[in-house]
C-alpha cells in the first residue's frame, strides 16, 4: 500500500462537520460519499471544510477529484482553494477538462499557479489555452521563466521539446566530484527531481552525463570528465514523443537529455512523462481499433461524442451497402431458397471476427515495431495457414450443424466450402490491410477496421451465395 | 538520436567479410541484410564474425535479433557467443521464445549467465524454466544468490515479489550523510542502478527512504533520520504487478520499496520494469478486445494460434446461430419480400459497430479505473443519448438511401425505425455488458465482445424484420 492510504486521520475539528472520509474505496474507486461532501463544500463556499477534505492530497488525487466534479464546480474548487491549490493537478485531468477549466479562470490566477510548476507541467497547461490567453499568462511571468516556456511552446505539438523540463543541472567537465556536490548543496534553486547531471561546454553543447549513483560512488577529487558517460542518451527536441517513449522503453531509461539541432542541451525528459505518453499511445490504439477517436474522453459532451463517432459508423454504412449490393445480385436465389438468407449472416460474421483477430495482432505488432519487412512474409504465411486451419475446422462444425438444421447435407457442404474461403480471405485481409496502410503512412489502427470487414462481408456473401447458386442451379 | 545510432563504425578487419551493417534502418525496423549476415555467421559457426556483428549491442537489440532468427539458430547464437552473451537479452524476448531457448541450453550455461544478472532479470529467466531444470540451475548458484532468487520465486506469479530486485542499499537511521556516501564509495558490490537508499531498523523493518538527489544536497554531518522520507512509497510483495503499475503511474514513482507482510524490506521495484508491465497490460487489453488471447505472440506456432483463436470464433458461431434463429422466425416475410434479406445485414452491422464503440470506451475506462460507481450512471445516460442521436441521424441517411434504392419510402421508414432501436440497444449493451462482467469479477476485455455483438445482432434482426412484418402485414 502506498503512503496515502496509511495517512493518519486529520485532527478532527469541533462541530458536526467532522469528516474522515476516504477518497478511494478498497478497490481503488473514487468514494461517492467523498465526492458528495466535496461538492457540498463547494456549493456552500466553505473554504475551510474544503481545505480539510483535500489536505495533503497528491496532485493526481486532486486531478481525479476535479474530473469527478460537475463542470461548473471545477473552477470554483480552484478559486476557493486559492494559493493552496496545486496547479500540477491540472496536468492530471483529461485535456477537454483542462481546457474548460482554464477558460473559466482569471489569467492572473493561472499565471500565479503556473509559476510554481516545473516547466514541463507549465507547458502542458499553457498549450491547453487559447493563444491570446496564453500570451497574457506569459506576460505576467518573470522574464527567465517566460523565455524558457516560450521556447518549449515553439517546438511542435507532441514533440520532445514540449514534454521536456528546462530545469536541469549542468556542470563543466573540469569540475571535480567534490565541487559538484558542494555546488548542489549550496544551490537552492535545484530541479525538484533529477537522476543525472549533465556536462556541457561553454556554448552549452552536451558533452556527457553522470548518473547520481555514479556521482555518489566517486571520490571527491576525481574530475567529472573522468566519471562522465561520454555518449549520453539524447533526443532531439523536435522528435515525436512516441519515438522518445520507444527509446526509453527499449533502453530502460529514466531520464534523457534533450538537445537542439546544434547539439546544445535544452532540457531533460523524465520517465514519468514517458509513462504517460505510453499510456496515451496504448489508449489511442485501443480506441481507434474500436472505432473511437483517440482523444475521446469520459468527460466529453454528448454532442462531441456523437459527432466524433459518426465517421466510423458512416464508413461502416458504406461498406455495408456494398455488401448489400452483393446480396442483391443473388435475389433470385434467396427467393427460391430462404435458408440462404438465414445462414448468410453466420458466414459473414465468422469472417469478420477472424479478420479482426488477425488485424488486431498486426496493428499492435506494427505499433510496437515487432512487425516489419524482416518478418512480414513469415507472418503473412502463418496467418494464412491459421485461417485455412480454422476454416477447415469450422467448415466441419458449421457444415454439420447447418446440414442437420435444414436437413440438407448439400447445404452443409456449401456453407463449409464458403467458410474455408472466407476465413482464408479474412486472414489475408487482416494482415495485408494494416501492412499496406502502414506502408503508405496511414495509421493502421484508425482505418484498418472498415476495410477488413468490408472484405470479409463481401467475400462472405459472395462465396456463400455464389457457391449455393452454382451448386443448386438456382 | 540515441547513442547507439551515433556509434562509430567498428575497425574494419581485412578480407572480404568487412561488415558495417546497420542493425536497424531509418524507420527503426530490423535490417534484413543484418539478419541474413548474422544467420550466415551462425550457420557457419564463425564466432569472430558473429562477435563483431553484435559487439556493443544493448540487451534489447540482442533480444530483437534473437526473436528475428529462426528458432534453431537462437540457442546456437548463445552457445557461439559464450561468456560474451548477455543473458539480460533473454528478458527482452517473448516468453514463448525464452522458454524454447532455455529448453535447448545446458543448465550450466544458464547458471553461468544468470549469475551475472540483477535478481529481477534472473527471476524472469528462471520462471520460464521447467521446475526440475530451475532447481538444477539454482543448485549451481552461490548460496546467497540462491536464497534470494528462491524467495522471489516463492511469491505468486505476476506479483511485486517476482518483479522486484533484491539488490538495494539500506542503512540505519543514525548514520550521517557523510558516512552513507563514504560507505557507497567503498562498497564494490552496489546495485547496478538505484535512485533511493532505504533506512531500516535492525530487524529490517522499513523506516524511510532517501532519494539520491536529496542525499547529494544534504551536508555531511546531517543524520539520515533527518533527511529521510518517513512515509516512503511501499508495496507488498504479494501485490499484483498491475496494481503496482497503477501506483507508479498515479504518483509518478521511479522506484518503490517492496516489503513483506511484517513490513520488512525485501526488495525494490524500479520504473523500467513497470514500463514493461504497463505495455504488457495495454497489449493484453488490445488483443483481448480483438478476440485474441493476451499471451499470443508473433513467435507462436501455427497450431498454437489456431487453437488459441478457436474459442472466440466458436463463441461467435454460437451467437451467430442465435441470430440466425431469429431470422428464421421471419422466413415467410423474407420469402415475400427479398429486399429485407438484402438490407438486414446493414442494420445488424451498424448495431455491431456502435456497440463496439461504446464497449471499447467502457472496457478501457474500467481498466484505467476512470469508470466506477461514482460516474457509472452519468456514462450510461451519456452513451444512451449518443446512441439515440446517432440512431436518428443514421435513420434519416439510411432510410433515405434504402427508400430510394428499393423505391419504397415505407421500407425506408421501417429501416430507420429499426436503426434507432438497435443503436440505443447497442449503446446500452456496450456499457452494461462490461460493467456487469466487471462487477462479477470477469475481465471485461476478454468476454464483452461476443455478448455485445449477440445483443446487437439479435436486436437488429428482430427489430428490422419484426417492424417490417408488422408494417407490411407480411
TrEMBL record, chains A, B:
Membrane topology qualifier: Multi-pass membrane protein
GO MF assignments: magnesium ion transmembrane transporter activity; metal ion binding
GO cellular component terms, A-Z: plasma membrane
Region Disordered: start-end pairs: 1-21
Keywords assigned by UniProt, alphabetized: CBS domain, Cell membrane, Magnesium, Membrane, Metal-binding, Transmembrane, Transmembrane helix, Transport
Subcellular location: Cell membrane; Membrane
Span of domain CBS: 228-284
SUPFAM superfamilies reported in the protein's UniProt record: CBS-domain pair (SSF54631), MgtE membrane domain-like (SSF161093), MgtE N-terminal domain-like (SSF158791)
TM spans (from-to): 312-331, 337-363, 384-406, 412-437, 449-472
Pfam families for the chain: CBS, MgtE, MgtE_N
CDD domains: CBS_pair_Mg_transporter
Subunit annotation: Homodimer.
Protein family membership: Belongs to the SLC41A transporter family.
Entry function: Acts as a magnesium transporter.
PANTHER family: MAGNESIUM TRANSPORTER MGTE
Protein name stated in the entry: Magnesium transporter MgtE
Organism: Microvirga tunisiensis
Amino acid at each position: 500500500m502506498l503512503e496515502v492510504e496509511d495517512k493518519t486521520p486529520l485532527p478532527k475539528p469541533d462541530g458536526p462537520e467532522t469528516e474522515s472520509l476516504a477518497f478511494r474505496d478498497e478497490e481503488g474507486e473514487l468514494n461517492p460519499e467523498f465526492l458528495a461532501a466535496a461538492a457540498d463544500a463547494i456549493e456552500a463556499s466553505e473554504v475551510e471544510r474544503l481545505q480539510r477534505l483535500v489536505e495533503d492530497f497528491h496532485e493526481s488525487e486532486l486531478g481525479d477529484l476535479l474530473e469527478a466534479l460537475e463542470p461548473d464546480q471545477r473552477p470554483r474548487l480552484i478559486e476557493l482553494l486559492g494559493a493552496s491549490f496545486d496547479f500540477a493537478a491540472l496536468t492530471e485531468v483529461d485535456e477537454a477538462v483542462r481546457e474548460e477549466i482554464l477558460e473559466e479562470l482569471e489569467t492572473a490566477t493561472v499565471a500565479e499557479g503556473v509559476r510554481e510548476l516545473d516547466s514541463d507541467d507549465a507547458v502542458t497547461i499553457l498549450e491547453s489555452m487559447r493563444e491570446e490567453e496564453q500570451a497574457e499568462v506569459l506576460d505576467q511571468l518573470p522574464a527567465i521563466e517566460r523565455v524558457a516556456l516560450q521556447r518549449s511552446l515553439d517546438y511542435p505539438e507532441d514533440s520532445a521539446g514540449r514534454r521536456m523540463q528546462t530545469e536541469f543541472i549542468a556542470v563543466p567537465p573540469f569540475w571535480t566530484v567534490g565541487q559538484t556536490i558542494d555546488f548542489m548543496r549550496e544551490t537552492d534553486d535545484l530541479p525538484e527531481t533529477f537522476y543525472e547531471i549533465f556536462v556541457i561546454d561553454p556554448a552549452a553543447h552536451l558533452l556527457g552525463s553522470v548518473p547520481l549513483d555514479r556521482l555518489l560512488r566517486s571520490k571527491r577529487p576525481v574530475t567529472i570528465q573522468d566519471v562522465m558517460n561520454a555518449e549520453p542518451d539524447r533526443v532531439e527536441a523536435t522528435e515525436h514523443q512516441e519515438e522518445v517513449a520507444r527509446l526509453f522503453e527499449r533502453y530502460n531509461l529514466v531520464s534523457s537529455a534533450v538537445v537542439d539541432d546544434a547539439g546544445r542541451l535544452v532540457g531533460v525528459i523524465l520517465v514519468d512523462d514517458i509513462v504517460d505518453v505510453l499510456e496515451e499511445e496504448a489508449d489511442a490504439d485501443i480506441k481507434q481499433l474500436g472505432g473511437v477517436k483517440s482523444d475521446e474522453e469520459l468527460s466529453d459532451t454528448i454532442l462531441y461524442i456523437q459527432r466524433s463517432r459518426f465517421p466510423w459508423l458512416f464508413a461502416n454504412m458504406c461498406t455495408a451497402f456494398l455488401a448489400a449490393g452483393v446480396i442483391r445480385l443473388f435475389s433470385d436465389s434467396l427467393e427460391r431458397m430462404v435458408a440462404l438468407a438465414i445462414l448468410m449472416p453466420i458466414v459473414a460474421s465468422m469472417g469478420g471476427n477472424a479478420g479482426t483477430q488477425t488485424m488486431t495482432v498486426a496493428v499492435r505488432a506494427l505499433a510496437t515495431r515487432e512487425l516489419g519487412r524482416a518478418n512480414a512474409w513469415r507472418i503473412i504465411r502463418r496467418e494464412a495457414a491459421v485461417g485455412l486451419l480454422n476454416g477447415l475446422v469450422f467448415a466441419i462444425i458449421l457444415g454439420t450443424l447447418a446440414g442437420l438444421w435444414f436437413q440438407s447435407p448439400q447445404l452443409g457442404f456449401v456453407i463449409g466450402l464458403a467458410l474455408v474461403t472466407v476465413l482464408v480471405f479474412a486472414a489475408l485481409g487482416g494482415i495485408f490491410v494494416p501492412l499496406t496502410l502502414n506502408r503508405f503512412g496511414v495509421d493502421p489502427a484508425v482505418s484498418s477496421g472498415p476495410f477488413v470487414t468490408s472484405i470479409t462481408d463481401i467475400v462472405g456473401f459472395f462465396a456463400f451465395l455464389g457457391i449455393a447458386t452454382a451448386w443448386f442451379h438456382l
